[in-house]
Amino acid sequence: MDFLIHMTMIFSVTTILILAIKLIFKNKFTPGWHVFIWVILMVRLASPMLPESDVSVFNFVPDWSETYADFIDHKTEQQISPGQEAIRPDQGNAETGLDENTAAASDGSSGTAGGADQKAFGESPESSWFRFGEKWILTLYWAGGAVLAAGLLLSYGRLLRRLKHLPLCRDAEVLGILNECQEQAGIGGKQILLKEGADSPILAGIFRPVIYISEKYEPEEIKHVFYHELCHYKGKDNIWNALAIAVLCFNWFNPLAWYAFKTFKYDLEVYCDYRAVRLTGERKAYAELLLKTVSANSPAFFVNGLESGEKEVSRRIKKLAYFKSPKLWGSIAGLLLIGILSVFCLTNASDISSKKQLISVCGPANEWGAYMLEVPLSWGKDYEEVIPEQPPYSENVVFHDKNGKQTVELTYKMLDLAENETTLPDSNVKSLSGSVDYEQKINQVIKQSGAYSGKADQIKVKKLEVDSSELWEAYQVKYWKASKLIRTEIYLIAGKYTRIVPVLCTENDKITGKELIQTALTLKKVEDPSQYRPKEKADMLTDAKTGIGVPGGAYDVSKLIQDYLQHYVDTKMPPDRAVKAFKIYSLKEITPAKDIPGIIDEGVISGESVPWHIIYPTARVYQVDYELIPEDKDKYADTAGGGFEMTKEGHKHYQKSYAVFYSYLAEGSYEAVFLGFLHESSLAEYGMDYSVLSRIDGYYEQEILPQVLEDARVQYVGDPSAVGKLLGLLPLHEYTNGMELQTKEEPYGITVNYKIGRAEPYDMEAGGALSAWPEKDGDLSGIYSKRAPSELNFYIERQLQKNTQYLFSGIDNVKSVNIICESPYLKHNYKLVYKDPYNEGSK
Predict the structure, then answer these.
(1) Number of other residues whose CB lies within 10 A of the CB of residue 761
(2) Helix orientation angle between 255-280 and 172-185, rounded to the nearest 10 degrees
(3) Domain tally for the chain?
(4) Residue 517 has pLDDT above 60, yes or no
(5) For the residues 591-599, what does the mean pLDDT come to?
């Protein structure tokens, strides 16, 4: 029945649309357009698979087959006696995955799931009646189509046998007229058989058509007859006619099909009239011929003939008055209209069951938006978030169908891991150890809740296979009552020691256990796109006028920031955070602000300026004006962080964001990296310069330094090449001015000389190696302490101290590290001696 209902719906909707469009544009387009539009119907019916589309007309048409199925289910359920459970026929061992006796009720009933109740379901009198009725309807349908097809074929066969005995036309004058007409019609040279003696002129035959003419037409009239039939021949109208008959046979019971077939046949004849008149230009003579073709008998189904009934001939003559040469704009408009109608009709309705939506959830982190879940739209496009009254207070998510009935709920359970807790010695800090039997923990939760365990005869807990880096384990819990599945739950364990467990559950029998499991296993953390660090090659930055040379100081910041924002767009996120595009309005490089942090915190030196541009000469800071364009502005809710405004178009506009870039030496060449935007909170508390230095320090110490200490580790302090390589990978390496190795006797040590700034100008003619310097010669701001101008800046001093620690970590047998730093206006050279990594350095 599904096939019959579905085909009837498709045929009826498409035909009604075509007829409506034809009626609206009755005389606006050419007769050819009125024929070609029917191709949409034939393609629609002949194509078993078509793409889905949100603009398909079938999205707005009720699914009659589903409505019929619901009606049958409703009628069947009404036959269940009071107190008897209605078991769906498709429920049982195959769906539940249980063995034969697992689903049996605990009151002693036995057999497969559904047992006696399913038998009662199958023996419903009304159910049997509906199945009997469906069988007879389908039998009648196929029999009716077969009878119609057989009748038409027999009729056509009799016609062909009668026409077969007609003689070939040997009249030289008539054959000459046919040849002239063929040349004029553009099919000259084609061998077309012409027979005479027919009751009326027709074109018969599908693959080898033959023209049959009547002897009642004069030579002047026969020309128009030939043009008409040759137009049928050239347009292969007999094949189109056969396809239309096939459509009619499949839809014989539908009155709309008979009307559509009659309209299509009429459109073919009018189109031939149109082409014939265009070939001859004799509209009046052709109209007079049509008057002579009035016949009481309609032409056979499988043939195309000139003659027709009085009403149809009258309509065709009136149509002649509207025949005009097609204009370019009309042709374009006609094709555009057919294209639009094709999009509406030659696509299927969107299958909502296969469509998904990403939603933000708390997940095991108990933090809203930290996780996301990919949920079928069939569960309900809209959902509500509910904060429970009991721990863990994670926001539950409840889905409802279009009728307001709950379909699925995502809730959370707290697991008791007290038996795995241990207290660390000499402290009150508790840690978790040992293994956790989560199946046992879940059973405890089920017993404690009692909400559903009290209603069920049997509860089955099953461990699921998990192929996800986001999940540790997963469990399925099924509740049965009287052999009927009443509830399914999926518990998701995120880690080895998880206290908060997301639980996806349903009591809706239309949602299968497989669908619930597949959805539950899509739980994953939401990636933070701000942590993405795009990179690219960096080159030497030189300034011949000032003699400034910074290896790795030249790179394309525009490309880096575009890569970063494009990754933001490409990152899969829920609608409340997802963006679909970005716009960059301006990029402006800024110099150090020379501000001083407003608060005292760990790492902050009171009253001191922060010379990030000297400690990291390859660093760059840009003020960026850009916008993020949300994927769904109505659902977008990512308002954290500040520093932006929402425009009237719903875009997230950052007018003054500060982007930090840094370049470092990696595998023999410099590589630039975008370190992200500075946070508004950091700028407000620490100022611009310290925020920049802190961002670069954090990246270097967390991402670069561990790799440096692994790849450039020095086994012996006496290897100057290896020591030099390690030193060249540390901050301030641009200012190194030689080193000395103490390897004659223990303790082995190293002395590193630094020179920051110079008083004399750089001599281009004399040459010399380029080094990294402050902004320009003579500008030594930032090198010296703001509090004590004759001493080195305390942040530079701190970095030198860090370098000694890095050298101790990177050189296996070094016992002491000496640092000497000179600068033109220092009262004394800065000196730092480290005897071992556990004692503080002395100056």
Answers:
(1) 11
(2) 100
(3) 3
(4) yes
(5) 87
Confidence of residue 297 (pLDDT cuts 50, 70, 90): low
Give the residue from 467, 497, 526 where a domain finishes: 526
The DSSP bridge pattern shows strands 535-543 and 830-834 to be unpaired
Residue 670 forms beta bridges with which residues? 538, 665
Q: Across-strand partners of 386?
A: 396
**Per the confidence metrics, is the pTM higher than 0.70?**
no
Q: What's the confidence (pLDDT) of residue 97?
A: 37
Among 527-536, 571-580, 776-785, name the one with the lowest average pLDDT: 776-785
- Asked if residue 600 and residue 741 are part of one domain, the reply reads no
Please report, to the nearest 10 degrees, the dihedral formed by the alpha carbons of residues 398, 402, 405, 410 taken in order.
-20
Nearest-angstrom CA–CA distance, 670 and 116: 77
Same domain, 443 and 590: no
pLDDT-wise least confident of 122-131, 421-430, 513-522: 122-131
Give the DSSP H or E segment for 130: helix 125-164
Q: Which DSSP helix (H) or strand (E) runs through 570?
A: helix 557-570
Spatial CA neighbour of 695 closest among 660, 719, 729: 660
Within a domain: 226: no
Q: Of 781 and 374, which is predicted with more confidence?
A: 374
Distance, CA of 720 to CA of 714 (rounded, Å): 10
Closest Cα to residue 818, out of 735, 742, 708?
A: 742
Structure-token pair, residue 211: 């023209």
* Maximum alpha-carbon separation in the chain: 130
- Amino acid symbol at 37: I
pLDDT over 90 at 317, yes or no? no
Q: Could you tell me the residue range of the domain that residue 458 belongs to?
A: 352-526
Which of 497, 526, 555 is where one domain is finished?
526
Selected residue with higher pLDDT from 128 and 395: 395
Residues 700 and 721 reside in one and the same domain: no
Sign (positive or negative) of CA dihedral 704, 706, 708, 711 = negative
The predicted pLDDT at position 627 comes to 96
Q: Residue 368: what pLDDT?
A: 82
Q: What is the DSSP string of 85-122?
A: ----TT-SHHHH---TTTTS-TTS--SSTTHHHHHHHH
User: Would 689 be classed as within a structural domain?
Assistant: yes
Instruction: Verify that 762 and 626 share a domain, yes or no.
Output: no
- Percent above pLDDT 90 for the chain: 36
From the list 565, 592, 589, 593, the residue with the least C-alpha distance to 579 is 565
Beta strands in 194-238 (DSSP E): 194-196, 202-204, 210-213
- With residues binned 3-state (H G I as helix, E B as strand, rest as coil), the percentages for the chain, rounded to 5, are 40, 20, 40
Q: What CA dihedral angle connects 310, 315, 316 and 317, to 10 degrees?
A: 90
- Whole-number Å distance between alpha carbons of 676 and 703: 14
Backbone phi, psi, residue 413, to 5°: -125, 150
Is 350's pLDDT higher than 80? no
Distance CA 644, CA 653 (A): 5
Q: How many contiguous H segments (helices) and E segments (strands) does the chain have? A: 22, 29
Q: What is the pLDDT of residues 656-702, one digit of tens each?
A: 999 999 999 888 889 999 999 999 889 988 999 999 999 999 999 99
Closest CA to 692 of 749, 612, 811, 802: 612
Q: Where are the beta strands (DSSP E) in 494-531?
A: 500-506, 524-525
- Asked if residue 565 lies in contact with residue 582, where contact means CB atoms within 8 angstroms, the answer is yes
Residues 370/466, Cβ–Cβ less than 8 Å: no
Coil/strand/helix, residue 75: helix
Return d(Cα 646, Cα 653) in angstroms, integer.
Answer: 6
DSSP 703: I
Note whether residue 145 is domain-resident.
Answer: no
Mean pLDDT: which of 141-150, 344-353, 446-455 is highest?
A: 141-150
Decide: helix, strand or coil at residue 551.
strand
Using the predicted structure, report yes or no on whether residue 54 has a pLDDT greater than 70.
yes
Q: How far apart are CA 61 and CA 771, in angstroms?
A: 75
pLDDT value at residue 838: 54
